[in-house]
Design goal:
single chain; 471 residues; alpha/beta; Aldehyde Dehydrogenase, Chain A, domain 1; Aldehyde Dehydrogenase, Chain A, domain 2; 2 domains; seven-stranded mixed beta sheet; six-stranded mixed beta sheet; 14 helices; 40% helix
Length: 471
């Protein structure tokens, strides 16, 4: 923080979920005093950075993006070891982070404005954008490089300074981002990394009068609490809080594609994606063939150590998440669902392993279909036709991503217009998005301006309107 690497009296071990005997390292745990010091460093750096040239911001962000892309294999291995993604997914995430930094490097050169005539003779009006100030970023563990990247890069591109609090389970990836930004020539104090508990570091960010805005990705309960606190104190805030995403499979769907799309959306990345296909809504005519085919491919997935070349699905991130997954499977059984899979697995290395699971013959009112599990768990709901399937898809408190598998242009078009979600996928997995377009949802999934792409400027800038009388 403030251009210096500062130690703490406390450190936490970073454990590999694929092998709990493998300690990746020990990382400092900040107290409230260190968090406040980081905030002050960001505040002091803001004036100069907010007035830096677009070229300076471009150079730093472009260099950071280039470093991420050059080191994608190395950093992908670290991410796989720390979070549990298989290397192909982890390297893809690092690549995406590099692309995000390069995209926002170019955006730094494109911050424009407008000059418009006034309705009053002789006057003119300028509409410009300015940085918001010090931005507190609170990021989750499931995308430990990509999500920090899509918050850090626009914040810096538009002239803000940053304090990042990453999830405690993935400090190594955040550490590498900090080193890359330092090596890219970012001035001291512009970016500050503070690792520690949400109750300590997150609390400091939310409560400090020197933090102008909070961007948060995480659980619904924490997000709502942060939003209420920010509203009360006048902070700008942006919340991404998860989903219970429907994938609708119609009778006319291409069966092979529907199974492949669903397998990807539900179980890749161990299902630990807020955009995962967790509710599979299948019409009656294809229900039996679809579930039979999906079960066969799900049960054939090879679960194992993330770095094993034969592994298709890695471990759950930690013991608490594993217990939560098991709890929801038991809830589904108690509510009358037939659960296939989900067994705890003992492999050569001690880790947090479970088989992917599918809950069959569920009703949309069951808890398994109302609450986010955040693991390799999907449930199937039967619908009599497209109309009922759409109604079931919209019967949720969330609205992040939604998908449909159909060969009908009529149904695809209607679904795109009428499903209540921020992102819609047609014959494609609900998870997996591009880096240059907006990301976000509706209802309980998101609050505030969209993340990513040019839409990010709505959160990270403030609009100023200036009236000019030349006299």
């Amino acid at each position: 923080m403030g251009g210096e690497w500062i130690s703490s009296s406390r450190a936490l071990p970073n454990i590999n979920p694929s092998d709990t005997n493998d300690v990746i390292g020990e990382f400092a745990e900040a107290d409230a005093a260190l968090a406040l010091s980081a905030i002050q460093a960001a505040r002091q750096a803001f004036r100069e950075w907010s007035r830096s040239s677009p070229q300076q911001r471009f150079d730093v962000l472009d260099a950071a993006g280039a470093a991420l892309l050059a080191r994608k294999d190395e950093l992908g291995q670290l991410l796989a070891r720390e979070e549990g993604k298989i290397p192909a997914e982890a390297i893809g995430e690092v690549t995406r982070a590099g692309q995000i930094f390069k995209f926002f490097a170019a955006e730094a050169l494109r911050v424009g404005g407008e000059i418009v005539p006034s309705v009053r003779p002789g006057m003119s009006v300028e509409v410009t954008r300015e940085p918001v100030g010090v931005i507190g970023l609170i990021t989750p563990w499931n995308f430990p490089i990509a999500i920090p990247a899509w918050k850090i890069a626009p914040a810096l591109a538009y002239g803000n300074t940053v304090v990042l609090k990453p999830a405690e389970m993935v400090p190594a990836c955040a550490w590498e981002i900090a080193k890359i930004l330092e090596q890219a020539g970012l001035p001291a104090g512009v970016f500050n990394l503070v690792m520690g508990k949400g109750s300590v570091v997150g609390e400091a960010l939310v409560s400090s009068a020197d933090v102008d805005a909070i961007s948060f990705t995480g659980s619904v309960s924490t997000g709502r609490a942060i939003g209420a606190r920010c509203f009360a104190s006048g902070k700008k805030f942006q919340l991404e809080m998860g989903g219970k995403n429907p994938m609708v499979i119609l009778d006319d769907a291409d069966l092979d594609n529907a199974i492949a799309v669903t397998l990807n959306g539900s179980f890749f990345s161990t299902g630990q994606r807020c955009t995962a296909s967790s509710r599979l809504i299948v019409t009656a005519g294809i229900y039996d063939k679809f579930t039979e085919g999906l079960l066969a491919q799900m049960q054939a997935l090879r679960v194992g150590h993330a770095l094993d070349a034969t592994t298709q699905m890695g471990p759950v991130v930690d013991e608490r998440q594993l217990a939560q997954n098991q709890k929801y499977l038991q809830i589904a059984r108690d509510e009358g669902a037939q659960v296939v899979g989900g067994e705890l697995l003992k492999l050569r290395s001690p880790g947090f392993y479970m088989a992917p699971a599918l809950a069959l013959d569920t009703e949309n009112a069951m808890r398994i279909n109302r609450e986010e599990v955040f693991g390799p768990v999907a449930s199937v709901v039967r619908a009599k036709d497209y109309g009922e399937a759409l109604a079931l898809a919209n019967d949720t408190d969330f609205g992040l991503s939604a998908g449909i598998c159909t060969t009908s242009l009529k149904y695809a078009t209607h679904f795109k217009r009428n499903v209540e979600a921020g992102m819609v996928m047609i014959n494609a997995p609900t998870a997996g998005v591009d880096y240059h377009v907006p990301f976000g949802g509706r209802k309980g999934s998101s609050f505030g301006p969209r993340e990513q792409g040019t839409y990010a400027r709505e959160f990270y800038t403030s609009v100023k309107t200036t009236y000019i009388n030349p006299l």
